[in-house]
Amino acid sequence: MLSTPRLTDARILVVDDERVNVVLLERILEQDGYRNVKSVTDPTEAVALYDQFEPDLVLLDLHMPKLDGFGVMKLLEDRISSDTFLPILILTADIRPEIKRRALSAGAKDFVTKPFDRTEVLLRIQNLLETRFLHLRVRIDPVPEGQAT
Amino acid sequence: MWRRYGDAVYTLLTLAIFGFETIALGGLSVSFLLGAATGIASTPVEGILLGVVISSASALGMLGLYLLSYHFISSMRDRWHGDQIDQWTEWWVGLALAGPEEPVEDGSRRPKLPRVAVDSVLSLLEAVKGEEGDRLKEALAGHGVDRWFLRRARAGHLTSRLDAIEALGKARLPDTLDDLLGLLRHTKPVVRRMAARAAAGILAIMPPEPGPDGPHDRFIEAVKRADLQPGVVQEALLLLETRAGPVLGQLLADPELSDSLRWVVLETTGRLGLADMADALAGAADHPDPELRAATFRALRRLGSVPEGAEAHLLEAVEDEVDFVRVQAAHAAAFLSAETALPALEPRLEDPSWWVRRAAAGSLARLGEIGIATVKRAAQSHPDQAAREMAVQILLEADELTPAAARLATGVA
Amino acid sequence: MWRTLLTGYQYVLLVYFSVLNVLYALFSCIGLRAIVVVFAREFSQGSLRDLLERDVYKPVSILVPAHNEEVSIVGSVRSLLALQFPEFEIVVVSDGSEDGTMERLIDAFALAEQPWASRQDLSTATVRHTYRSLTNPNLIVVDKERGGKADALNAGLNLARYPLFAAVDADSLLDGEAILRASRLFVEDETLIAVGGTIRPLNAAVVTDGRITEARIPKKWLERFQILEYARAFFTGRAGWSHFKSLLIISGAFGLFRRTAVLEAGGFLVGTVAEDMELVVRLHKHFLRERKPYNIRFTPDPICWSEVPSDLGTLRRQRNRWHRGLWETLWIHKDMLFNPRYKRLGMVAVPYFWFFEALAPVIEISGYALVIVGSFAGIVSPRFAILFVLLAVLYGMLTSQLAAGIETFLSTRYPRLRDRALLFLAAFLEYVGYRQFLAFERTVATVQVPFKKGQWGKMHRTGIRDHAKSPPPTEERTPAGV
Fold it and tell me: What is the rounded (10 degree) CA torsion for B262, B265, B269, B272?
């Protein structure tokens, strides 16, 4: 039987081409107790890092040179099996409603515009991670405790 | 895409080299002429020529040296800059995330901030708002950064002014709004443009202040009086983000608003999708200027609704004498009820303008079953060939017709 | 008598050469200031992002005329589809291609044939079929009878539906932000009708998934010299002219135009080899005649990468064609020469192109000939001859180096120090043979103008090697171990 993992053990991957944003997010997460945060500023390296790191949550910027957020999501789509719940939280300065719609239908689970509010982002991250861990638990341990032979 | 340092030296160097060379070449030409007048190519000319050759070679050497050293210096500087930004970012993030118990550094004791530090905090302000953002802004103000930028924005070399104005736009400090609005009267269009953008950015985060003479009113007044290209005003209005609605509403309600500004307001309202402003927009539906009539219907189409008051004007506009007005009216007609729209749109299928035919057919297709049926009928039996072709095209795009059937219908092999 | 004539001509040469170099110098300075100082500051990265994120843009139709481009067409279209721009369409016009161009397109993009109700704003050669892509709804492909590049562009214009259109070469690679950077100028200036971009040679650049990931210097000196030539032409030449609102050329590899303006002027002219330059000159003419306010500008951001000839034969034919095109355009619009009705263009720009661009290679070659012949005939002292040639070469190197210098200000310059050093060296070597060779070819072209109207010649293409699909070239490869 698995012990319930703490949320703060979650592996979080940050993908943003601006160094400043990456540092900001890393420190915010660190301050809130998350110890397992990796980041990358080159979106073309994001997928390789994903394979290696197997994050529980991805914080993704949309507008990046070379490969934008939609491109990254498309590449990740190929790697995620249909019963995996990989939460992707989009953090972008783009306020257009159609971009939000497009991102959410491309696989993102939540959407936050920049400049963002720290508390709000942390709460959303927490929600997504809770859902993710719940999903993992249900998948691995479908039989409730006490009925195991 | 371009580095912003070292170009002044390079320009001077270039000017110096070629200024000198111009004189040298001029001298050479003159001496040659003199020599030719008195005889054929003679030694003094060759002497000068030799001199010019040597000086050119040394100029080339000098230039080459400068470029090579620039390569090295810029490489190192880029790296250094990157490291510095990282360091400062860490510092600023630490400051921003510090709890309320830790006081913000008092600016009076600290030396002036290096530019790198300011750049990094401005980048941070684009990422985070709320408490953390406020702490960063306090720090900026505490170090006198806003005053420093304002000084540079008000006077000095054009490029540093533009830099300063842009920085103020990123910093979004409410106290700087009025100075920026003042710059909207500057003689250079590029300064006006940057100031408009910066002012809009600041206004976007200011809470709405009731009563006259608040920041919104000042902004509106400044924009109305300034000589700005319509694209620039549009850009500024779009940068207002959530504050755009009230500002646009106030502008629309002004009966003395200039036509070009009214056009921009209509466009922007449409682009921002401010559906609750449809009624206010409809006022320009019968404006004497066809551009404004067209803009009204374009906006209504983007908003997806035609208020009752505008219906009559819309039906008139579908038969307007100006073609682009007909086009926009035909597009907007898709949002009327089918019974109202159909009789207005069907005759437009044989409009002389291709764009009108397309808009009419497209709108008919969006009117539901009756509309589609009308288009199908037109595709089969409309007397005008152009109308038939357009109907077929629209049916194809609406997936109501297969390519094979379309080819049959139009007789294309 | 011969002596006086020759001496007189020597003097003319000297003055001509001096004026030309002073003008080059002037352009270098202006170009530098126009680009790095004014332009770079005016258009910041922030406002570029805002264009994308705040909906302040005008949609663009990208026209891609193609003739027998089966090697590179799919790659080009793929990279165009990946452009960062909110709303655009691509219209590929296959101009009577006899190879597999259409087949490759149909395969790669699931093209479905659809009859198209199009406008006929411009008359063109017959359009055989029109296709729409099922996988990419913003891709349209037109298969038409051969009519030439201008004709293909006109056919594309008939189908284009957006207010702006970009004319792009089938073998060019656009930077992801290319359209964004070029089109933002239209947002702020209502009178703008055309924008030209900066082209950089694509050869040897590392391309991954249709995007340039790293700029590299090619191995052949021939290609390296061309890098310098492009830098000179764009950063000094066009930047300078654009600054004075007298830009006469927008490269056919990438130009962004307002559709209504071009239609007003009559579309592209069929039957000339330089339809890109001819259009721009005609736009100037039309709007000046109509007394309508207008603007034609140049953006120095390097946003288009084009394959340049890597063998002498293709290079010769290309330069021959360009020079003939220049003459053809100037001749078609000869009424603009010294015509005050066309203001700055008629009085300064057009004459400059006549005397310092079109005629320059002829005079240059005659200069060398004179110096050589003269020194053998004893008219010119050998010392003078040598020194004169040396001076010409030195000046050439100076202007070359200046252009290469402007390139170092780019943040996307060649990253490897070795590459930049090679470019530095190339600026010296360019004037020891390469320039003279080209001057000779252009002189030949001048003579051929009356005989070879509108002819293109065969081009040898190597295609864009995409490194996502094939292994990258390594420098350490031994000849045996290829």
Answer: 160
List residues bridging with C254 in a β-sheet: C168
Q: How far apart are CA C140 and CA C122, in angstroms?
A: 18
Q: Provide the 3-class DSSP secondary structure of residue B7.
A: helix
Q: Pairing state of beta strands C164-168 and C60-66?
A: parallel
Across A85-99, average pLDDT:
85
Please check the confidence at residue B137 and state whether its pLDDT lies above 90.
no
Domain assignment of residue B69, yes or no: yes
Residue type, position C102, single letter? M
C54 contacts B239 by C-beta, under 8 angstroms: yes
Class at the top of the CATH hierarchy for domain A7-140: alpha beta
Nearest to C52 among A63, A66, A67 (CB): A63
Q: How confident is the model over C259-275, as pLDDT tens digits?
A: 999 999 999 999 888 89
Q: For residues B29 and C22, give the distance between their C-alpha atoms in angstroms, rounded to a whole number.
A: 13
**Token pair belonging to C131:** 């296709």
User: Would the CB atoms of A118 and B125 count as touching at under 8 Å?
Assistant: no
CB contacts, 8 Å: A114 with chain B: 126-128
Long-range contacts for B337-343 (Cβ within 8 Å, ≥24 apart)? B338/B367, B338/B368, B338/B370, B338/B371, B340/B311, B340/B315, B341/B367, B341/B371, B342/B367, B342/B370, B342/B371, B342/B374
- C-beta atoms of B68 and C424 within 8 A: yes
Distance from CA of A115 to the nearest CA of B (A): 4
Note whether C350 and C342 are within 8 A (CB): yes
Q: What is the pTM of this model?
A: 0.81
Question: Is C170 part of any domain?
Answer: yes
CA atoms lying within 13 Å on the CB side of residue C36: 26
Minimal CA–CA distance to B169: which of C46, C214, C316, C364? C46
Look at residue C60 and give its three-state secondary structure.
Answer: strand
DSSP string, C140-187: EEEEE----HHHHHHHHHHH--SSEEEEE-TTEEE-TTHHHHHHHHHH
Q: Give the three-class secondary structure for C321.
A: helix
CATH of the domain at C74: 3.90.550.10
